[in-house]
Design a protein that fits this description.
It contains 18 helices and no strands. The chain is mostly helical. It is globular and about 60 Å long.
């Protein structure tokens, strides 16, 4: 009975995986066909899995916490944390950046801690948009449409710079505060190996190194550090199910003619309903306009908690420490939709 309750709670918690699985089953029954998966689909899943293993290894080695605790010193703590979260998200993904910096923010003796964590969520989504490896939707768009790295950067850099510029201006009004001293943290010896593996995986994502080099990541974790294999497998499952669901939906509906110039608007608002990662997977079958899709799902990462899984991470960590703060969600939505509609207006006005 206890095991049944455990799995029921876990499935409710992983509602996105559950709903996508149900979607695949229902559409497959209706169409009398199984989804079709391409070789590129499986390559993306393998790369994502290996990337998560490396990031888990770095997290377990205390390297990320070590770096962040050393960097957060002196005044202007709000701006520092916002920028550090954004920079970390570029190289370690938005999820890892928040897992790294939000717990540190909670230990600081400063005012407006709730707003700072909301700003961190915005910064993580903005910073992670720059590189293909910054977040799952970027990784998918880069591998699915195969643009050059230069074109990718030219397309999305204005989004990141505009978001961070606005965020820094707002942070200036929050206050000029100094953080309390942090305890010294020493990273474990294997962090150097994981840093090397991280560089290797970045090379794989950027298509500079053949994908089979990633076997070294799995081999090291299996032989020397099996605890690093405890990653978010539900995220892999969500990708797998959405690859299948989008293939089935492609045989059910055709929205290509309705998209055209409205790719940004459609993808941004759809992200508010099903999150930006599934939106990128779904709409990729209906449009070749990867630039507008990239902007749309990036904007869609703002707004509500569903827009980006990173938002849920920041929210969960804060509420776990301050469950009595009922206004946090209202503040999160207010700031989130300020950036959502602000960036959408800026894009449409250009």
């Amino acid at each position: 009975m206890l095991k049944v309750n455990f799995w029921l709670k876990r499935l409710i918690k992983e509602w996105l995986f559950l709903s996508s699985t149900v979607g695949v089953i229902l559409t497959s029954i209706y169409l009398h066909r199984f989804p079709s998966y391409s070789f590129d689909d499986f390559k993306i899943l393998i790369i994502l899995l290996l990337f998560l293993v490396v990031l888990r290894g770095l997290e377990r080695s205390n390297f990320l916490t070590y770096i962040s605790s050393k960097l957060i010193r002196g005044k202007f703590i709000h701006i520092k944390i916002v920028l550090l979260t954004a920079i970390a998200s570029i190289f370690f993904t938005n999820d890892i950046a928040l897992l790294m910096f939000v717990p540190i923010t909670l230990t600081l003796n400063i005012k407006h801690k709730d707003l700072l964590i909301i700003f961190q969520a915005i910064a993580a989504n903005a910073g992670s948009a720059i590189l293909p490896a910054g977040n799952p939707q970027n990784m998918f768009i880069y591998w699915f449409y195969k643009p050059s790295l230069i074109d990718f950067l030219k397309t999305i850099l204005p989004f990141t710079l505009t978001s961070l510029f606005i965020l820094i201006l707002i942070s200036l009004f929050v206050g000029n505060q100094k953080a309390n001293e942090q305890k010294d943290i020493t990273p474990k010896g294997n962090y150097k190996i994981y840093l090397a593996l991280l560089m290797l995986m970045l090379g794989v994502v950027l298509r500079l190194i053949p994908i089979w080099f990633g076997v070294s990541v799995a081999a090291y974790a299996l032989i020397f550090d099996r605890k690093s294999l405890k990653i978010d497998y539900f995220l892999i499952g969500i990708f797998f199910m959405f690859f299948g669901l989008t293939d089935n939906l492609r045989h059910l509906i055709n929205i290509s003619s309705q998209l055209k110039e409205s790719v940004v608007i459609f993808s941004a608002f759809l992200s508010q309903l099903i999150s930006n990662v599934p939106t990128a997977l779904f709409l990729s079958d209906f449009t070749n306009d990867w630039q507008r899709l990239l902007w749309g799902v990036s904007i869609g990462g703002y707004g509500n908690l569903i827009g980006s899984l990173a938002n849920l991470i920041a929210y969960r960590i804060y509420i776990t420490h301050y469950p009595e703060d009922k206004r946090f969600l209202i503040k999160f939505l207010f700031v989130g939709y300020f950036f959502f509609f602000g960036l959408l207006f800026i894009y449409l006005a250009k």
